[in-house]
Write a structure and sequence with these properties.
Chain B: This is Ferritin-like metal-binding protein YciE. Chain A: Its cofactor is [4Fe-4S] cluster; Mo-bis(molybdopterin guanine dinucleotide). Chain A: Keywords: 4Fe-4S, Iron, Iron-sulfur, Metal-binding, Molybdenum, Nitrate assimilation, Oxidoreductase. Chain A: GO terms for molecular function: 4 iron, 4 sulfur cluster binding; metal ion binding; molybdopterin cofactor binding; oxidoreductase activity. Chain A: InterPro entries: Asp_de-COase-like_dom_sf, CT_Nitrate-R-NapA-like, MoPterin_dinucl-bd_dom, Mopterin_OxRdtase, Mopterin_OxRdtase_4Fe-4S_dom, Mopterin_OxRdtase_prok_CS, Prok_molybdopt-oxidoreductase. The structure holds 2 protein chains of 2 kinds. By secondary structure, chain A is of the alpha/beta class. Chain A has 4 domains: 111 residues, Single Sheet (N-terminal domain of TfIIb), CATH 2.20.25; 259 residues, Rossmann fold, CATH 3.40.50; 228 residues, Dimethylsulfoxide Reductase, domain 2, CATH 3.40.228.10; 146 residues, Beta Barrel (Barwin-like endoglucanases). Chain A is built from 28 helices and 29 strands. The two termini of chain A are 40 Å apart. Chain B has one domain: Ferritin. Chain B is elongated. Chain B is mainly α. The relative contact order of chain B is 0.16. Chain B contains 4 helices and no strands. The chains are: A alpha/beta, B mainly alpha. At the A-B interface, α19 of A face α2 and α4 of B.
């Protein structure tokens, strides 16, 4: 047994390059439950980050009582992270769960039955469709539902209601991953695989605090680092994260300067002749333009703008340029900054320049934030067209119309889909009057919360919220629909490296809660959506039926699911797409042949100008004749729009802690996790704290032009001049919807701005000032185990979990699994 | 030679376009993408304006009566409000940017004929940026037009 709150990454199982990662089976059972007490184990995968760890759910007397990693799963080889161990069933088996629908009566939410609640939803839909048409409707979904649910939602929204206003909170977490791959390679689709960690000589983490956001993936890196021939590690992050501590080079760039650094690294690779010129000539376009754009970015200029050492920039470039097998991973530090797509495309550019793609150890992982975000993207629940089809390509729209048996004109495709921030703007302006939010909490997670709360509150907005709990957002709703959680329904989902898992239903949902799929099907039925022959638009009635329909929708597309089935998942591991006749075991890596999905008839997008987001258009795209070559997309560095000044002299960034997930709806209700990080805090660098006269635990006010928070200060090891706040803390367990007397939500301070291409909001660049308001009565409630570790060790009691946080580890009970056996070893 | 007339016309149009982008940026500050991008594009226009200076000096200022047409590139005047107002303002800027774009094109033709390498390099850069201004305006208008014309109050 091991305390997995204190030992976040558990016991090391070192392994050498090109060996398979050893199995370690992690298990947590409820207090008083032993292995023999478990009635049955139900196959699933974890939904508390984007890693996609295969797991089994323990069931006893109709309740979930435990979880363990699946030894045979190709993603996690048996492991689970603290959130999976302590926040999976514990986060949903809770007395606070919504068990009945609620409707607003005389200003208050009151319990009702499904008929009444759904009739109210349908009545409002019909009224608005009649009065204003489909543009009155918006859908804001999640990265938490299952594939079958998203696909059903996508059909309902696009061909039922016919609105272009569909997006998910994936816009906040993963939109740039999709955008950068579309721009560089012509389509979404992760080039690399987690297996590349086993094989690489160097791993670059760009704005990716993997140690806290994907703990199990980081275990894989730690085990490589503990073995023979460890890879070199390069970390780009203004904070001194666990990743930074293990790095050979740490570049603590000023937040808001990523593109300057990336232009500098690209330039170094070019001027030092580290390019693979044959690969560039055969497989890419626009090299000259890229070379010209990066030309001014000498290491010295990078050093000046980014605030790092010029020699470190050179060393970083040299590691990239001269190491045989390099893996790069990218996440929110890049995605949630301005110039997000441009900087992420530059990671792709580096790999394209050296031809480091589609080979063992040579991968790119443009990470996702959430467990099922990939499916939001694939199915078009984020507004895109399903199956990575191109909204600008009339043949693609016609093909989709055939799959759905509707008129092509029924599918809104006249312009890019409306992104989340624009949907909320339309709601603010009163042109969207019906907003249906599922499994996400915009009243805490969107930027500039005062504005969001105000617009969600509006009388003229009919707000439907579908969730497990009465979140801050749900409290503002007109109708609240109680949803079934993970373990209470069946469906599939796909992780960062395209691996599809099945999650079976283990127990019944509480009270009258229903699966999101059943809710969408009920709505479709009540709205009586029909295809062009008068048959039901959504003909399926269960998850497997939805999966079959989806499979057909993906035929011939990059995310081809046609070789997958529920039957194939059961008993085994997840399988990475494309999986079809050509790749019957799935596909480990994309682009082995250097042929990219950029063909104009096949690509998902004709691309955008990275500075403005202007669409390139079909004619211009065809004129480039991409013919399967990747695109080296370039953009000059631009300073952030809000830089420190006299009034707001510090740089602000928000982010995550290892113990919490999103707005804590689950993890805040899981004892060991909640205790490890019970309250909001803010991190100040030692030098800044000294200047402000603030010591560990003092209460400070952090103010931006949008609002303020008042929280305890952790004196940490971040970059001087940079202030960090965790974004998890809202008000459901304090004052309800909003801050009241105790503002603590990181997004009170963030700016309303987004990347021009991916439309991902800018959470990591803003200007703030900090003032001390009171002396603290002890250390800040921040964990000591990861990036929020105090600057002075020994001054704060270490974070431990105690008896409730003890979990089992079984090391190497079986041989490690291999991914896509026939493909790897024909 | 009437090229100086066109250079003067172009420089003036860039100034007016910069001013108009700035007006749109400030007048529609509640649309963050319009706000920030219009400021960025205004700066680009000003940079074009300034980059034309040495060329204008070299070819000499045109005399007032040499102007070949009556169509003056005028700015937006007053900014409009609301979703349709935004659409109309962007459309006006689009017209201005179109004048700038075609003028660069024509100046570029003359530069080719004169084998003026310095001017050709400037035209290549500025014409491309102006084309992107048009692409962005078009993208943004197309995205917003249905909502403004059908659903907005």
């Amino acid at each position: 047994m091991i305390d997995r709150i204190a030992e976040v990454w558990g016991t090391r199982t070192p392994y050498e390059q090109d060996q398979r990662w050893p199995v370690r089976v992690d298990q947590k059972l409820a207090e008083g439950v032993g292995d023999d007490d478990v009635d049955r184990w139900v196959q699933s995968a974890c939904v508390l980050c984007s890693n996609g760890c295969g797991c089994d759910i323990a069931v006893k007397d109709g309740r979930m009582v435990g979880v363990r990693g699946r030894a045979t799963d190709i993603v996690n080889h048996g492991r689970l992270g603290p959130k999976g161990l302590f926040g999976s069933w514990q986060g949903v088996d809770n007395k606070d769960r919504l068990t009945r629908p609620l409707v607003r009566e005389n200003g208050r939410l009151v319990a009702t039955d499904w008929d009444t609640a759904m009739q109210r939803v349908v009545d409002n839909s019909r009224r608005l469709l009649q009065e204003k048409g489909p543009l009155s409707h918006g859908f804001y979904t999640s990265g938490q539902l299952f594939l079958e649910e998203y696909y059903t939602l996508s059909v309902v929204g696009k061909a039922g209601i016919r609105t272009p206003h569909m997006d998910g909170n994936t816009r906040l977490c993963t939109a740039t991953a999709a955008a950068s791959m579309k721009e560089s390679f012509g389509s979404d689709g992760q080039p690399g695989s987690y297996v590349d960690i086993d094989e690489c000589d160097a791993i670059f983490l760009y704005g990716h605090n993997m140690a806290e956001t994907q703990t199990v993936l980081w275990m894989r890196v730690l085990d490589r680092l503990a073995g023979q021939n460890p890879p070199k590690v390069v970390c780009v992050d203004p904070r001194e994260t666990e990743v930074a501590r293990h790095a050979d080079v740490h570049l603590p760039v000023r937040n808001g300067t990523n593109q300057a650094l990336m232009n500098g690294l690209v330039r170094e690779v070019i001027v030092n002749g580290w390019m693979d010129e044959d690969y560039v000539a055969a497989h890419t376009l626009h090299f000259d333009e890229l070379r010209d754009v990066v030309e001014p970015w000498t290491p010295e200029r990078v050093a000046e703008v980014c605030g790092v050492d010029a020699d470190d920039v050179r060393r970083t470039a040299e590691i990239f340029g001269t190491t045989e097998r390099v893996l790069s991973t990218v996440l929110q530090g890049f995605y949630q900054s301005h110039q997000a797509t441009a900087a992420s495309c530059n990671v792709n550019n580096l790999h394209l320049l050296r031809g480091l793609l589609g080979r063992p150890g040579c991968g790119i992982l443009q990470m996702n934030g959430q467990p099922t975000a990939q499916n939001t993207r694939e199915t078009g629940a984020d507004g895109d067209l399903p199956g990575f089809r191109n909204w600008g390509n009339t043949d693609h729209v016609a093909e989709l119309a055939r799959v759905w048996n509707v008129d092509p004109l029924d599918i809104p495709s006249w312009a890019p889909p409306t992104h989340a921030m624009q949907i909320f703007r339309y709601a603010e302006q009163g042109s969207i009057n019906f907003l249906w939010v599922q499994a996400t909490n915009p009243a805490v997670s969107l930027p500039e919360l005062a504005r969001i709360r105000e617009l969600l509150h509006r009388e003229e907005l009919f707000l439907v919220v579908q969730d497990l709990y009465l979140t801050e957002t749900a409290q503002l709703a007109d109708v609240v629909l109680p949803a079934a959680a993970w373990g209470e329904k069946t469906g599939t989902f796909t992780n960062v490296n395209r691996t599809v898992h099945l999650s079976d239903k283990a127990v019944e949902p509480p009270g009258e809660a229903r699966s999101d799929l059943d809710i969408f099907l009920d709505y479709a039925h009540r709205m009586d959506f029909r295809d062009r022959d008068g048959n039901p638009l959504v003909p399926w009635s269960d998850p497997e039926g939805a999966f079959h329909a989806w499979r057909e929708c993906t035929r011939g597309r990059p995310c081809d699911y046609t070789g997958l089935s529920y039957e194939r998942f059961r008993g085994g591991s997840g399988i990475p797409w494309p999986c079809n006749d050509e790749h019957p075991d799935g596909t480990v890596r994309l682009y082995e042949d250097g042929v990219f999905p950029t063909d104009p008839d096949y690509c998902e997008t004709y691309g955008h100008d990275l500075v403005t987001g202007a669409v390139v258009g079909e004619q211009a795209y065809r004129a480039m004749n991409p013919a399967g070559r990747a695109l080296l997309k370039a953009a000059p560095y631009q300073p952030p729009h809000e830089e420190p000044d006299e009034d707001y002299p510090l740089r602000y960034t928000s982010g995550r802690t290892v113990y919490h997930w999103h707005t804590r709806t689950k993890t805040g209700r899981a004892e060991p996790l909640d205790r490890a990080a019970p309250q909001a805090w803010v991190e100040l660098a030692e030098e800044d704290a000294e200047r402000l006269g603030v010591i560990e635990g003092d209460i400070v006010r952090v103010a931006s032009r949008r609002g303020e928070i008042v929280v305890a200060a952790r004196i940490g090891r971040g970059r001087q001049g940079v202030v960090f706040a965790p974004f998890h803390y809202g008000y459901w367990d304090t004052d309800g919807v909003g801050p009241g007397e105790h503002p603590r939500s990181a997004n009170e301070l963030t700016i309303t701005e987004w990347d021009p291409v991916s439309k991902q909001p800018v959470y990591k660049v803003a200007a703030v000032r900090v003032d001390k308001v009171a002396t603290g009565d002890g250390p800040a409630p921040a964990p000591t185990t990861a990036a929020s570790r105090p600057a002075r060790p020994g001054t704060v009691r270490p974070t431990v979990g105690g008896s409730e946080a003890m979990a089992d580890e079984r090391i190497a009970p079986v041989e490690p699994p291999a991914v896509a056996t026939r493909e790897e070893h024909p | 030679m009437k090229l100086p007339v066109y250079l003067g016309l172009l420089r003036e149009a860039e100034r007016v376009l910069a001013e108009s982008f700035r007006q749109v940026a400030d007048g529609h500050a509640a649309e963050p993408d319009v706000h920030f991008l219009s400021h960025t594009l205004a700066q680009q226009c000003l940079a074009h304006y300034e980059a034309l200076d040495p060329i204008v000096q070299r070819y000499g200022e045109a005399r007032q009566e040499d102007e070949p047409e009556r169509l003056h590139a005028e700015g937006l005047g007053r900014i409009r409000s609301g979703p349709v107002g935004l659409l109309r303002d962007l459309q006006d800027v689009y017209m201005l940017a179109s004048v700038v774009e075609i003028t660069w094109k024509l100046v570029g033709q003359a530069a080719e004929a004169l084998r003026d390498r310095e001017l050709l390099e400037l035209v290549a850069r500025c014409h491309k940026e102006t084309s992107t201004h048009l692409d962005w305006l078009k993208t943004r208008m197309e995205q917003t037009a249905p909502q403004a014309l059908i659903a907005a109050q």
